[in-house]
Structures are given as structure tokens and as C-alpha cells.
Design goal:
- The chain contains 13 helices and 21 strands.
- By secondary structure, the chain is an alpha/beta fold.
- It has two domains: 174 residues, Rossmann fold, CATH 3.40.50.1950; 199 residues, Rossmann fold.
- The chain has an eight-stranded mixed β-sheet, with helices on both faces.
- The protein is elongated and about 70 Å long.
- The two termini are 31 Å apart.
């Protein structure tokens, strides 16, 4: 009864995979979860609401305007009740509604109102899944913190072969367990994470920066907090929301980052430096906006910024674990190995930012984990997966 006392709202949309949601509902009930099912009108064409009422032991919500059995606004009550909101199968249509804030039926209205984590199990034709509109919607939902499982590849009901088949109920259930009963293997540890770019002021209008989005560092901070750590996130300017249960300290320049890290690094058990601080900053900051001077070129004089990772490494105390990142464009492994030693790191995560699926402002990464004992290159993974893999390896080093 791993999910005893947990309340799951299960949204079912109109697709042939709706029959698999019956098995998922049954698994959830057998594991102790209280399940409330919301079905779209089209879903009712594939599976009868009576089936889910029998499996869940609760009335099924299908109609926004049906007179409620209790004196409460049903879609709001369900939204508040959920510890987790699962949509399986999730059609392209429901994902498009969610991405654009459309609430025109019971399911889309309820999921828009919930503050619970949302898990989406897509199911659709391969062409629909690969369509640019669908992929844009997926990225939007992921950026807002929603979770996905699948879709899988294989033979589809329409006769096509390719991505689009809903994950099996066992795989969806496993993901539900991970979200509702996360591993607390980092409990008791203090983790300090850096993320994002820095901005080096040139004048009151302009600054020098880089393309870092902060997604990798934020994924690490979020995963560490979910796994029980006390997390402090030192972040350069980004548009990303603060991860749940994470303290964020905002910085702008590399000097700001240096000052915060010198103040905070001694208190952390694990330090993961995923930020992309500038190596150089303007030698002088203009008081007024720099104007064009005739047809001549503008020459900027730059000076080196503090080497934050090296400074942290020099202050490393016994038992403390230091992990760095090396975003490179050439000689990736050689450069990363040099930084591992020079900056007194226990592990460095190297990646080629020019490789497709890796680098800046994307949701995936291709990394190589390097320690004094060796290295291992991982396949292309979501940054959330890289984050958990990194933390698992960090914990082994820590022990």
C-alpha cells in the first residue's frame, strides 16, 4: 500500500488507449490511493464512466454543469483534493488546451485550477506527436514544471509505426510512485547549486552575457530538494520559476557570484557549480549610454573576473564534495580533465555545447561524468534526468 492516503485525480481523454487507464486506476486503488476520475465527452465513447466508477469507487466527473452531489464547486474541489493530477491518455487536443490556458470542459477546467503536480501520458498518431505545434506545446508544459511519461514507439492502432503509443500502466504507475513517494536519499545534506549566466555591465543600458538559460542548474536544485536536501540556488538572471522548497539567491555579475559563494560555500556539504560566469568584464563601466563616435570602431578593454570555481576549491574542507561543469566547444574531455585537477573538484560534468541536443537553452543534454577514477559518457537525456543521475553519482562519491 505504497500510496496509502494519497489522492490522485485521473483525467481520461478520448483515444483508444483509454482502456489502459482502467488498469492504471485499478493499480492505484490496490496501492492504497484514493482515485477520482475526470473523463472528457470523447473518452466516454471508448470506456463507460460506469467502469471507472466501479474501479475507483467514486462518481466520475464528466459534465462541468451537472448538478453536484455535494455543495461544492466540483472542478475546484477536485483540483484542491489532488496530491497528483494524472492525464492518461493525453491527446494532442488536451495538451494544446493546457499549454494555452483553455478551459472549456470539466477536465481542462479542473487541471487549470489545480496546484498539484501534473503527470501527462501522451497518446496519439505519430504524425500528430511529431507535429511542430504538439512539440511546442510539450516544451511549454515542461517549462511550467509538468511531468511526462512516454509516448513509446511501436505499432499504433491506426496502423502506423512510430512514436505515439501510450506508456504501459506499469510504467505510468512507477512514475506516479516516484512523484508521490520520492527517494529521500539526500535528506540531511546541504546542497549549494549555481545556475544561469552572469551579466557584466558595460553602461546603464548594455551588458555582456552568454546564452546560458539556467535550465541545468535549476533541474539539479529541484531534484536535490525533491530528494530531501536543503538546497540553496545561486542564480544569475533567468526567466525560470523558483523550484519548490529551494532558497534562491539572485546575482547579476561574476563578482556577485564570487561574493555569495565565498560567504556560503563553507556551509554546504555538496556544491554543484552549473552556472556560466563570464571570464571577462569591462575594465570600466560608463556612467552614460555609450554613443556612436562617427564612423569609427569602438574598442572595449576587458579585465579578468574572479575564478569562482577555483576559489571555492581552495576553500574546500574535509568531507565536502565539489562538482563543476565544463561547457566546451573543442577538446571537451581534455579541457574538462584539466579543470578537474586545477579547481580541486571531485567530479566534473563535461558537454559539447555545439552538439545537437546539448548545450544552451534546450531541455536535453549530452554529458560525460569525469572523476579521478575515470569517465562515462551518457546518451542524450532530458536535463531533469541528467540532474538525478548527477545527484546519484554525487551521493556515491560522498559515501
Amino acid at each position: 500500500m505504497a500510496l496509502q492516503g494519497k489522492q490522485v485525480v485521473l483525467g481520461v481523454t478520448g483515444g483508444i488507449a483509454a482502456y489502459k487507464a482502467c488498469e492504471l486506476c485499478s493499480r492505484l486503488r490496490k496501492s492504497g490511493a484514493d482515485v477520482y476520475v475526470v473523463m472528457t465527452k470523447n473518452a466516454c465513447e471508448f470506456v463507460s464512466p460506469l467502469t471507472f466508477e466501479t474501479l475507483s469507487n467514486h462518481p466520475v466527473a464528466t459534465d462541468t454543469f451537472k448538478r453536484p452531489e455535494t455543495w461544492e464547486v466540483e472542478h475546484v474541489a477536485l483540483a484542491k483534493r489532488a496530491d497528483l493530477f494524472v492525464i492518461a491518455p493525453a491527446t494532442a487536443n488536451i495538451m494544446a488546451k493546457m499549454a494555452h490556458g483553455i478551459a472549456d470542459d470539466m477536465l481542462s477546467t479542473t487541471v487549470l485550477a489545480t496546484r498539484a503536480p501534473v503527470l501527462i501520458a501522451p497518446a496519439m498518431n505519430t504524425g500528430m506527436w511529431e507535429n511542430a505545434a504538439t512539440q511546442d506545446n510539450v516544451k511549454t508544459l515542461e517549462r511550467r514544471g509538468m511531468h511526462f511519461v512516454g509516448p513509446e514507439g511501436g505499432y499504433l492502432a491506426c496502423g502506423d509505426t512510430g512514436a505515439g503509443r501510450m506508456s504501459e500502466p506499469a510504467a505510468i504507475f512507477q512514475k506516479i510512485e516516484e512523484l508521490l513517494c520520492p527517494n529521500q536519499d539526500l535528506a540531511g545534506l546541504s546542497v549549494l547549486v549555481t545556475a544561469g549566466p552572469t551579466q557584466e555591465k558595460l553602461d546603464p543600458v548594455r551588458y555582456l552575457t552568454n546564452r546560458s538559460s539556467g535550465k541545468m542548474g535549476y533541474a539539479i536544485a529541484s531534484a536535490a530538494a525533491r530528494r530531501g536536501a536543503k538546497v540553496t540556488l545561486v542564480s544569475g538572471p533567468t526567466n525560470l520559476p523558483i523550484p519548490k522548497a529551494v532558497e534562491r539567491i539572485s546575482i547579476q555579475s561574476t563578482q556577485d557570484l564570487y561574493d555569495v559563494m565565498m560567504d556560503r560555500c563553507g556551509q554546504a556539504d555538496v556544491i554543484i557549480q552549473a552556472a556560466a560566469p563570464a571570464d571577462y568584464t569591462p575594465a570600466a563601466v560608463a556612467d552614460q549610454k555609450i554613443k556612436k563616435q562617427g564612423d569609427g570602431d569602438l574598442i572595449l578593454t576587458l579585465k579578468q573576473t574572479p575564478d569562482v570555481a577555483k576559489a571555492v576549491g581552495e576553500k574546500k574542507r574535509p568531507g565536502q564534495l565539489l562538482i563543476g561543469f565544463a561547457a566546451e566547444t573543442q577538446d571537451v574531455l581534455e579541457n574538462a580533465q584539466g579543470k578537474l585537477q586545477k579547481k580541486n573538484l571531485d567530479m566534473i560534468v563535461a558537454n559539447d555545447v555545439t552538439a545537437p541536443g546539448a548545450g544552451f537553452d534546450v531541455d536535453t543534454n549530452i554529458v560525460t561524468f569525469i572523476t579521478a577514477e575515470g569517465m562515462e559518457t551518457m546518451p542524450c537525456m532530458k536535463k531533469t534526468q541528467v540532474a538525478d543521475e548527477l545527484l546519484t553519482r554525487a551521493l556515491k562519491l560522498k559515501k
